[in-house]
Task: inverse folding
């Protein structure tokens, strides 16, 4: 018998952090508008939330994702929202990436004591970040601009990290602009880091809405409804960035930065530029390249753009700068 139309509440799986709940709440509002159905948030605890190890040590890839995906597949929730940069680059066959909404600001930011900017920090300033990618690029920038900084690995949510600055433990911490924007704390940023200084993580600032790739009418209806939230430009951009990451065989905790952006003349979209960087965490060795071409019209074209740039980066020695590569 065919599935009966289901007009009950949709269950949206999310991590429990303040940021994750804010993101999920925004997605829930959008889904209510396109479906006319109530959306309930279902909080899921992931391994990345409970482990106290640094992300680079526990692998990064999938630690915030697996429990949410399991909840979707088991039917505990109907769909889930992830920070796209947390997703492993290989998409499971039984799940579909139904929507990648319009991207938030992809940049990294500094929250520093005394409202200081990066270039104003005192000699020997301690900067906290849990990201080898940020460490590599900040240290490379410091080397080339005569700055004396120390990057220190940290973990914790936004409150914890900013608290390290407020209590004097660090002079500054690095966070994602998108996260602070989504929880209404943009005014605490003391410096927005240009992408020419620090390229973001592949997919940074974007969300991923995932549901079952089932054969039922109910699954098909949900995929179609969620698809209305998809932004084609964001999707091809993050697809190219993640293709680069995959071709480098790097996990999401590797010191890899990537950003694809649309080059436009007024309202006319001209081209897409993809930039990539890999470096040692001390900033002493970096491979940074870019390529510009037509805006990809298909998934395969976006994937090809990322692979091509990764091939050039590997030819310049990128593999030797990443430490242990993903398997």
Result:
């Amino acid at each position: 018998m065919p599935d009966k139309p289901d007009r009950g509440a949709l269950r949206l799986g999310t991590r429990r952090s303040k940021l994750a709940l804010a993101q999920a709440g925004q997605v829930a509002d959008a889904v209510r508008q396109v479906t006319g159905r109530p959306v309930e948030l279902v909080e899921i605890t992931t391994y990345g939330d409970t482990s106290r190890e640094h992300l680079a040590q526990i692998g990064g890839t999938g630690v915030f994702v697996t429990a949410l995906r399991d909840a979707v597949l088991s039917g505990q929730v109907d769909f889930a929202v992830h920070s796209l940069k947390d997703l492993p680059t290989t998409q499971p066959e039984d799940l579909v990436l139904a929507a990648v909404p319009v991207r938030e600001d992809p940049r990294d930011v500094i929250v520093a004591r005394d409202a200081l900017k990066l270039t104003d920090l005192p000699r020997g300033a301690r900067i906290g970040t849990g990201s080898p990618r940020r460490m590599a690029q900040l240290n490379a920038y410091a080397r080339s601009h005569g700055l004396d900084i120390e990057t220190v690995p940290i973990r914790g949510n936004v409150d914890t990290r900013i608290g390290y600055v407020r209590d004097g433990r660090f002079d500054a911490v690095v966070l994602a602009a998108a996260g602070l924007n989504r929880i209404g704390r943009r005014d605490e940023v003391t410096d927005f880091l240009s992408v020419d200084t620090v390229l973001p993580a592949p997919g940074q600032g974007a969300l991923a809405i995932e549901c079952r790739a089932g054969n039922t009418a109910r699954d098909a209806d949900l995929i179609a409804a969620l698809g209305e939230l998809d932004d084609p430009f964001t999707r091809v951009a993050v697809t190219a960035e993640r293709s680069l990451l995959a071709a480098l065989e790097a996990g999401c905790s590797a010191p890899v930065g990537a950003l694809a952006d649309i080059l436009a003349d007024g309202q006319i979209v001209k081209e897409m530029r993809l930039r990539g960087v890999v470096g040692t965490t001390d900033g002493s060795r970096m491979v940074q390249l870019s390529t510009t071409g037509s805006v990809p019209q298909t998934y395969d074209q976006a994937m090809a753009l990322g692979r091509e740039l990764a091939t050039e980066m590997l030819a310049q020695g990128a593999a030797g700068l990443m430490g242990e590569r993903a398997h």
User: Anything to note?
Assistant: The CA atoms of residues 211 and 230 lie 14 Å apart. The chain has a mean pLDDT of 89. The two ends are 43 Å apart (CA to CA).
